[in-house]
Amino acid sequence: xxxxxxxxxxGALMRAWAMLVKEFVQLKRDRLTFGTMIFIPVVQLLLFGxxxxxxxxxxxxxxxxxxxxxxxxxxxxxxxxxxxxxxxHVARTEAEMDHWLRSGTVLFGVEIPPGFERxxxxxxxPAVLVVADASDPVAAGTALGALEGVISTALGRDRGIPETxxxxxxxxxxxxxxxxxxxxxxxxxxxxxxxTILTMTMLIFTALSVTRExxxxxxxxxxxxxxxxxxxxxxxxxxxxxxxxxQAALIVVFALVLFEVPxxxxxxxxxxxxxxxxxxxxxxxxxxxxxxxxxLQAIQMSFMFFLPNILLSGFMFPxxxxxxxxxxxxEALPLTHYIRITRGIMLKGAxxxxxxAETLALAFLMLVAMTIAVRRFRRTLD
Amino acid sequence: xxxxxVAIEVxxxxxxxxxxxxxxxxxxxxxxxQIYGFxxxxxxxxxxxxxxxxxxxxxxxxxxxxxxxxxxxxxxxIKRRVGYMTQRFSLYQDLSIRENLEFVARVYGLDAPEQRAxxxxxxxxxxxxxxxxxxxxxxxxxxxxxLGACILPQPSLLLLxxxxxxxxxxxxREFWAEIHKxxxxxxxxxxxxxxxxxxxxxxxxxYIAYGTLLAxxxxxxxxxxxxxxxxxxxxxxxxxxxEKLAKAPGVDMVAPFGASLHVAGRxxxxxxxxxxxxxxxxxxxxxxxxxxxEDVFIDLMSASKDNFQ
Lengths: 382, 309
Ligand SMILES: Nc1ncnc2c1ncn2[C@@H]1O[C@H](COP(=O)(O)OP(=O)(O)OP(=O)(O)O)[C@@H](O)[C@H]1O
Ligand SMILES: [Mg+2]
Hints:
- The complex is a heterodimer of chains A (382) and B (309).
- With 382 residues, chain A is of the alpha/beta class.
- Chain A has 2 domains: 59-178, 3-Layer(aba) Sandwich (abc type-2 transporter like fold); 185-381, no CATH class.
- Chain A has 16 helices and 7 strands.
- Chain A has helices at residues 3-29, 31-51, 70-81, 94-103, 116-122, 137-145, 150-157, 185-207, 209-216, 218-224, 229-257, 267-291, 295-312, 324-331, 334-348, 356-376, and strands spanning 59-65, 85-90, 108-112, 127-133, 164-165, 168-169, 172-178.
- In chain A, the strands form 2 sheets. Chain A has a 5-stranded mixed β-sheet with strand order 2-1-3-4-7, sandwiched between helices. A two-stranded antiparallel sheet of chain A has the order 5-6.
- Chain B has helices at residues 46-53, 75-81, 97-107, 113-124, 139-151, 169-184, 196-199, 219-226, 238-247, 268-279, 293-308, and strands at 6-17, 20-31, 35-39, 61-66, 69-70, 82-85, 157-161, 188-192, 204-209, 212-217, 229-234, 253-257, 260-265, 285-289.
- Chain B folds into 2 domains: 3-218, Rossmann fold, CATH 3.40.50; 229-290, RRM (RNA recognition motif) domain (Alpha-Beta Plaits), CATH 3.30.70.330.
- Chain B has 309 residues and is of the alpha/beta class.
- Chain B is globular.
- In chain B, the strands form 3 sheets. Chain B has a 6-stranded mixed β-sheet, with helices on both faces. Chain B has a 4-stranded antiparallel β-sheet with strand order 2-1-4-5, covered by helices on one side.
- The interface between A and B is medium-sized, with 16 and 22 residues.
- Residues 17, 22, 40, 42-48, 87 of chain B line the site of adenosine-5'-triphosphate.
């Protein structure tokens, strides 16, 4: 037995022990961090466990019907019965239906042509058009697969009509996958990634900005100078808007070149709304910074915020498939709106008119965050 | 003295942190153009008082004005006219000297901030080092930079929290020469310090211990107020004598000064009775001396500790 080795071991263990005790004491003092370590994982497990659904049902669907009779009603009922289509909107014109599809208000549009019943009775085999927003192939795919049974269900209810004319169905359902007809995953993922990456980087940029001043002791000087909380905030956010913009531009270039994602809409509109989105996230990060007591807490808050952004925004899982309460959480996240914007502009050629609601939502979230930040900002050292 | 303008006037200022009273019912008045020294032991509430004056802390009770503006309601106006130098270095360590000064100039909305920063660098004697990061400066130079940044916007009132801690004697002398020049031009300076020689360079001083203001006025006034009687004894083995005297009734303070000893008491008769047995010894020479400022402070401090316990 070597006493030297033992001495070294006990010495090393003692020192490691000293460090461990110190870390625990510090941890105990930082209540918020301690709380988030225990509480947040449980909340997030429950939240996401119940919210995420990869085979979404009750997807919002717009109807364009020119006549109201037993046959059209049973076609609609048959669609609803699949449990995939939920008739939420009734369009008066094709343009209106297109607008809802482009803006992401509905995932499907069902058009039953004029004179449908007469055509069926005549044996003309008219077509019911089901337009799907296939920019998210997962959400659209299962629902479209369920269309097969719809014809027989619809005709089975409406007895006056022969189900088949010479062994072919009395009408057909024509599917139209819009925006991403070949169901290329990257077309859907890349516009979403643009927002996800921006969220992550922007949050961290500003989340540390106020806590850093406090921890380094520069806050005391700063507070004694004639500068107001709003001025501090604007000055701290502005430089990162430029950085965020450069980041966004790089991602878009790579999306175009490497992943061949089209930009169906206006590049200028995309740039403008991206700037708004960047500013919104910077404001939220800054808000965390004014609430957190130290940098560790600020980073924790950013991560807690980032996870629902990935899971509940429609980036990874279809938004329409989530339960109502989860959708409301999603609506409160900037990424949800930005993903609708990027998918809308890049894949669907959406215009400003289609995106008014999302733009207002982003601006609203940004203003709320800024207001909280300015009010939370501690102007004294009390 | 001609009817001078008041720069700071506070009354009954009180502040506590989580139940512990840190500044207690503090009242003071500082005239324009005065250099006002703020003294007191560690943790006595000097920094806290300075912070209340510039709006960084809200007093629990009491009222007051700085430069005529209410310290509770008008701290924005105060901040524009006050330079506050923090005890701990609080400029940006990762900015260069020039960048720090330019930042300050811009925040205060000065014209030509670059030029103002250049002038300040020259005044500080930092030419040729302006691109050095503030965090890499030595302690004393950091203090000088911080002072330079405070003076840059030409405030009417300077609040300096131990500005010369860790500064070498020559630089301290230059610093005080600068302060006196600024005061002569009309700037009011409230400066906290632990150095007696600096206290003696102030027009007036205030002594605060455990949150309570114990003495206030010119050096002569503060010494006179103390009613302290002091003897200086010199000779061999004074250390031994110090031990004996410290326990004697009537002796409030015994402090060695090199080869001699300061013995002081508030009650003249009791003190003389206490030293009488040693007064006849030929090896020691006893001289009655006026108390020094330090004697007064040490006495005030020990007296207030008695109250505190
Ligand atoms: N933010 C705070 N929270 C709690 N206690 C505080 C706070 N700031 C100061 N104190 C307490 O108030 C008392 C006075 O502190 P202050 O810093 O004003 O003393 P000071 O006179 O400047 O001392 P020093 O000479 O050491 O700088 C101390 O006991 C200190 O612990
Ligand atoms: Mg202090």
